[in-house]
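Q: Please design a sequence for this.
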């Protein structure tokens, strides 16, 4: 998978579930027209952005190996990015948001290898190499911004998603691919598909759903990384990749009719429409403020709050997630149930299907999916009558309450959950506190319900007073086979007609003239006339010729 990428130490650290998204760039598939599109956008952008972009933009182009005349290759970018501690990989269009952010956490830029078609030269809803390489890469030359991007990925990859998020991701991916489909002639069927896709996005946007953590943090990502301004409200500079890569919006965003708002955590609750120009933008006074707001938002997330709300988010997500208990024990799986007390404290939780236990992001030996293939459950909290949690018991306490290996024991939690069985053994964390106790011939009851019985096998009781963290994904990525759902919407590869092949031949001829410095004005004038008569829609080719004629 990595055979076409310049070796960069950061790439070697990637876990398998991220490597699966990496695709060869296939540089040879770029047409001469594609190269002309890149050159046109970069020439126009660099000239304009040198006046309105953040100060690190021009320097960043050099530091990230991006030239005006040629589409960048992953080889060159990785060789140069390595010097500033980053790397780059090519992917096929949109990838799931959690994966995108996790790449950032590893300090790796995700670059969609395709390039926009001529019709969408000013703006494309699809991620392309102009947006990713010329938009995202240059600003990471600013150390403050680069650290913000890394930290954002670290926090964002833990955000809990919803089923609605997945629907929206698929809908946006679909419309971006459809709008970048290359068709020589008017295609009524394609127009119909685009209209249907736009209607689907509008339907999803109008759907009344509780925003998930992922949807909120994606808003923050949009209003900063993609469409952010920096400086003052009166004189902002561009740094968002969506603005830096758009010929049209890089200019229109500075006009008075686009509202400029001071950047704050409020941006997390402001939705956006990827198919249209933005009616308002947020301005941060500096990149340090971005990090401050990110930390403020992170303090609202289940990864830091834990508790019943965090667990409920995981249950609602119906996706693989992890909770961490106060002892440090981490349980990963698909959470399906919890019981809370009158104070909304979780006193029991349950997963269904393959689950795994870990400590400090490393799977506990003997507690992987094969051991817990049918799920995991456990009560939590303090013991009744002694107001003490098992994790806080010292050796004398354990002895006093009969917590001996190979001894039968019966105890009741403050919640009323009762455990009775043969204590086999315990497992401790680095601080010496019990975090797991194994029982056989065990029964767990709550009121009139049997939560666990001897027929269920061995009970692995999780020791912990409370849930201190809850987040998306597993604690140890190697515990699960993390093959993401492969999107049904595939990038549509162009098939060129004889006419289009002839056009590409003309672009090649003009590029050859430029590179070899062969300026034959009569020949170029003749070529220009041919293009205007036979291919009137190829304005970019005429522009290329005019530049040579002078």
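A: Design:
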């Amino acid at each position: 998978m990595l055979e076409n990428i310049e070796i960069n130490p950061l790439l070697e650290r990637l876990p398998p579930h991220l490597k699966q998204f990496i695709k060869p760039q296939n540089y040879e598939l770029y047409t001469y027209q594609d190269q002309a599109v890149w050159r046109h956008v970069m020439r126009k952008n660099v000239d304009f952005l040198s006046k309105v972009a953040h100060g690190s933009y021009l320097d960043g182009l050099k530091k990230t190996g991006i030239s005006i005349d040629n589409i960048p290759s992953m080889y060159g970018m990785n060789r140069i990015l390595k010097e500033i501690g980053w790397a780059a990989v090519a992917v096929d269009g949109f990838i799931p948001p959690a994966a995108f952010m996790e790449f950032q956490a590893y300090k790796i830029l995700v670059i969609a290898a395709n390039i926009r078609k001529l019709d969408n030269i000013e703006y494309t809803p699809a991620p392309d190499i102009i947006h990713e390489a010329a938009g995202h890469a240059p600003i990471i030359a600013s150390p403050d911004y680069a650290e913000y991007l890394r930290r954002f990925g670290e926090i964002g990859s833990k955000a809990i998603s919803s089923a609605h998020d997945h629907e929206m991701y698929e809908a946006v991916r679909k419309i971006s691919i459809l709008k970048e489909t290359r068709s020589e002639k008017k295609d009524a069927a394609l127009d119909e598909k685009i209209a249907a896709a736009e209607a689907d996005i509008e339907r999803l946007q109008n759907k009344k759903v509780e925003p998930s953590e992922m949807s909120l943090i994606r808003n923050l990502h949009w209003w900063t990384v993609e469409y952010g301004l920096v400086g003052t409200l009166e004189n902002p500079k561009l740094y968002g990749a969506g603005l830096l890569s758009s010929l049209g919006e890089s200019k229109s965003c500075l006009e008075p009719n686009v509202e400029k708002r001071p950047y704050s955590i409020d941006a997390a609750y402001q939705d956006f429409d990827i198919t249209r120009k933005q009616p308002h933008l947020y301005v941060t006074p500096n990149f340090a403020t971005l990090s401050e707001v990110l930390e403020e938002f992170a303090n609202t997330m289940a990864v830091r709050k834990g508790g019943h709300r965090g667990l409920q988010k995981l249950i609602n997500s119906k996706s693989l997630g992890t909770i961490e208990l106060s002892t440090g024990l981490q349980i990963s799986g698909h959470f399906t149930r919890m019981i809370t007390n009158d104070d909304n404290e979780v006193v029991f939780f349950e997963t269904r299907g393959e689950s795994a236990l870990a400590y400090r992001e490393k799977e506990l030996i003997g507690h992987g999916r094969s051991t817990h293939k049918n799920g995991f459950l456990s009560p939590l909290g303090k013991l009744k009558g002694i107001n003490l949690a098992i994790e806080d018991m010292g050796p004398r306490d354990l002895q006093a309450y009969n917590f001996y290996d190979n001894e039968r024991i019966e105890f009741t939690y403050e919640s009323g959950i009762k455990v009775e069985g043969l204590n086999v053994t315990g497992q401790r964390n680095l601080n010496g506190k019990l975090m797991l106790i194994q029982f056989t011939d065990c029964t767990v009851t709550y009121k009139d319900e049997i939560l666990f019985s001897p027929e269920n096998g061995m009970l692995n009781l999780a020791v912990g007073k409370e849930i201190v963290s809850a987040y998306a994904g597993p604690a140890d990525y190697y515990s699960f086979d993390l093959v993401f759902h492969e999107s049904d919407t595939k990038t549509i590869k162009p098939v060129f007609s004889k006419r289009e092949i002839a056009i590409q031949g003309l672009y090649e001829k003009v590029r050859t003239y430029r590179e070899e410095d062969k300026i034959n004005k009569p020949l170029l004038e003749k070529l220009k006339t041919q293009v205007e008569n036979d291919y009137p829609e190829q304005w970019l080719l005429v522009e290329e010729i005019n530049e040579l004629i002078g």
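Q: Thanks. Anything notable?
A: The chain has 20 helices and 19 strands. The mean pLDDT is 89.
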